[in-house]
Design brief:
FAD/NAD(P)-binding domain; five-stranded mixed beta sheet; oxidoreductase; Flavin_MAO; Polyamine Oxidase, Chain A, domain 2; seven-stranded mixed beta sheet; alpha/beta; 453 residues; globular; NAD(P)/FAD-dependent oxidoreductase; 3 domains; 16 helices; Guanine Nucleotide Dissociation Inhibitor, domain 1
Length: 453
C-alpha cells in the first residue's frame, strides 16, 4: 500500500505527553501539525489499562507539588487528582533483615546511621543547590562529579554502609533504576535537582503525592482528542530526510512534507530512525552514551486493602530486599486494595532469569515480608515490563553513563538543522516525569515557532 502523502508546517514524532504538548502549543500558535505515533495508543510511557478486571497504571502515574506544568494543565483541562493513601505505620526492613514499623520520615535505624543519613542528605542538598537542574554541566565541578560513580562518591563521604545504601536507594533503585556504580554523582545531583532537592526524593509523601482520577494516560488522551485527526497511530517513522527546503518524514502509512520536525521519543529510540543526511558525529556519540534503566513495576490487587485493617499505610522500604519499595496504589473509587511494588536494576535482571511463576512467587514473598502473608494471594497480579516494550526499551528514562552528562549535556536539545528534540529524558525540572515531558514539549514548540517566524 502506498503511503498517504500529507503536508504540514511541523511533524511531531511521538504522541506521548512531550509530543502532544508540542503539537498543542504549535496549533495554538497557528501552525499546521501532524503527529505520528508508532504505538496503537497515545500516552507514551503513561498507560492506564485493565488487567484481570482491575484498572492499573501500567506506566507513569505520580503528581507532586513541584510539578507546576502538569498541575497547571490538569487545572486547565478540568481534571482532578486524589491523594495516595498514607495513613498508619510504614514498614522498613534494614540491612539486618529485621522488619520494623515506624511513623514519620526517619527510618528506624541506629542513631549513628540515622545521623549519617541526615548528614549525607544535607551534603546532597548543598550540591543540588550549587549545581541546579538547568545546566549541571556548566558547574566548575561538573567533570569531577561526572567521572565518579554515585556509589563511590557516597563511600568517600561515609564509612557507614547502611547509610550509603539507603541514600543510594533514593536515586538508584527509586529513580534512575540503575546500580549506583553505573551512573555519576553529577547525574544523581541532576535527578535530585529536577525535583527541587534531594530531600524531596527522600520524602515519599512529596514525590509520590497524588494521582490523576482516570489515570495519567487520560491526560494524553485529552490532548490527543483536541488535536483530532492530526494524530496518526500505528505509524512508526522510518526515515527523516532534511535539508534547506524542509523535511520529509516517512513511515509505512504516511509521508509528511513539512518545514520542521520534532522528535519526541526516548533517546534510545532516536537511532531507530534513519536520517538523510545522517546526524552529525556529535549526535551519534551522545546518543550512544544515553541508556535506559530497568525496573519491574508490580501490581497486586486484593479483595480488600488488608494492610489498612492492620494499621499499616502500605508503604515499605528495604535496602537489601528484592522489593525495595511498596506502596498502597488503590485506584480512586475501588473497594479492593492494590499494592504497587518495584524491583529495579540488577535485582530485576535476576528475577527475569526465572520462570514466570517462580518470579511471581519470589516477588510476592518479598512483599509479604513487609505486609504479611495475605500479600501472597492476590486476586490479580501484573508486571509492567517496559524493558521489553518495543517503543520504549526501559524505564523510567534515559540517563548518561560516567562522564556523559558533563561531556554532552549541553547539546541534548540542540537542533540539527530542521530537526528538534523533546522528551522527559531531556528535561531539567521534571526530568523523567510527565511534568518534564510537558515542559520539554512547550520549549520545543517555542523554538520551532521562533524558527518559523
Amino acid at each position: 500500500m502506498n503511503p498517504v502523502e500529507l503536508s504540514a508546517d511541523v511533524v511531531v514524532v511521538g504522541a506521548g505527553p512531550a509530543g502532544l504538548n508540542t503539537a498543542r502549543h504549535l496549533v495554538a500558535a497557528g501552525h499546521d501539525v501532524v503527529v505520528l505515533e508508532a504505538r496503537d495508543r497515545v500516552g507514551g510511557r503513561t498507560w492506564t489499562d485493565e488487567r484481570d478486571g482491575v484498572t492499573l497504571e501500567i506506566g507513569g502515574q505520580w503528581v507532586s507539588p513541584d510539578q507546576t506544568e502538569l498541575l497547571g494543565l490538569l487545572d486547565e483541562l478540568g481534571m482532578e487528582t486524589y491523594p495516595r493513601y498514607r495513613e498508619g505505620e510504614n514498614v522498613h526492613i534494614g540491612a539486618d533483615g529485621v522488619r520494623r514499623t515506624y511513623r514519620g520520615d526517619v527510618f528506624p535505624v541506629s542513631d549513628s546511621t540515622a545521623k549519617e543519613i541526615a548528614r549525607l542528605t544535607e551534603l546532597m542538598d548543598d550540591l543540588v543547590a550549587a549545581v541546579g537542574a538547568t545546566e549541571p554541566w556548566a558547574h566548575p565541578r561538573a567533570r569531577e562529579l561526572d567521572t565518579i560513580s554515585f556509589g563511590d562518591w557516597l563511600r568517600r563521604q561515609s564509612d557507614d554502609e547502611e547509610a550509603c545504601t539507603t541514600i543510594a536507594l533514593f536515586i538508584a533503585g527509586a529513580m534512575l533504576t540503575k546500580p549506583a556504580h553505573a551512573f555519576s554523582t553529577l547525574q544523581a545531583v541532576l535527578m535530585a535537582a529536577s525535583a527541587g532537592s534531594f530531600t524531596h526524593l527522600t520524602d515519599e509523601c512529596f514525590i509520590l503525592d497524588r494521582r490523576v482520577i482516570g489515570g495519567m494516560q487520560s491526560v494524553s488522551e485529552r490532548l490527543a482528542a483536541d488535536l483530532g485527526d492530526r494524530v496518526h497511530l500505528d505509524t512508526p517513522v522510518r526515515t527523516i530526510r532534511h535539508g534547506e527546503d524542509g523535511v520529509v518524514v516517512e513511515s509505512d502509512r504516511v509521508t509528511v512534507r513539512a518545514q520542521r520536525v520534532v522528535v519526541a521519543v526516548p533517546p534510545p529510540l532516536f537511532s531507530r530512525i534513519s536520517y538523510d543526511p545522517p546526524l552529525p558525529r556529535r549526535q551519534h556519540q551522545m546518543h550512544q552514551h544515553l541508556s535506559m534503566g530497568l525496573v519491574i513495576k508490580v501490581h497486586a490487587t486484593y479483595a480488600t486493602p488488608f494492610w489498612r485493617h492492620d494499621g499499616l499505610s502500605g508503604t515499605g522500604f528495604g535496602t537489601s530486599t528484592l522489593v525495595q519499595e511498596v506502596y498502597d496504589n488503590t485506584i480512586h473509587g475501588d473497594d479492593r486494595g492494590t499494592l504497587v511494588a518495584f524491583v529495579a536494576d540488577e535485582k530485576a535482571d535476576a528475577v527475569f532469569a526465572l520462570p514466570e511463576e517462580e518470579r511471581r512467587a519470589r516477588i510476592l514473598e518479598s512483599i509479604a515480608q513487609f505486609l504479611g502473608e495475605q500479600a501472597l494471594a492476590p486476586i490479580a497480579y501484573y508486571e509492567s515490563d517496559w524493558g521489553s516494550e518495543e517503543w520504549t526499551r526501559g524505564a523510567y528514562a534515559a540517563s548518561f553513563d560516567l562522564g556523559g552528562l558533563a561531556r554532552y549535556g549541553a547539546d541534548q536539545r540542540t537542533p540539527v538543522g530542521r530537526i528538534h528534540w523533546a522528551c522527559s529524558d531531556l528535561a531539567a525540572e521534571g526530568y523523567q516525569h510527565v511534568d518534564g515531558a510537558l515542559r520539554s514539549g512547550r520549549a520545543a514548540a517555542a523554538d520551532v515557532t521562533a524558527a518559523l517566524a
